[in-house]
């Protein structure tokens, strides 16, 4: 979609894009995609670090619960001793 500015500047933007080598262009596209992913992931979250800490804590608690369930339904092992 050309415009008044394109005719004034002689499509310099297209020339600049063509001068960038493909590897640099791929790297820039990768960085832009990563930024968009992070922005989307953090949308609506006031403190993303706090959310990550809470998720990590939740994962650790789930692991502990699974381990205790495997060991004996959450109850300590009883050992009988005769005196």
From TrEMBL:
GO biological process, one term: negative regulation of retrograde protein transport, ER to cytosol
Record Pfam families: SVIP
GO cellular component labels: endoplasmic reticulum membrane
The keyword 4Fe-4S is annotated on this UniProt entry: no
UniProt KW keywords: Lipoprotein, Myristate, Palmitate
Top-level taxon in the UniProt lineage: Eukaryota
Protein name: CSON000765 protein
Protein species of origin: Culicoides sonorensis
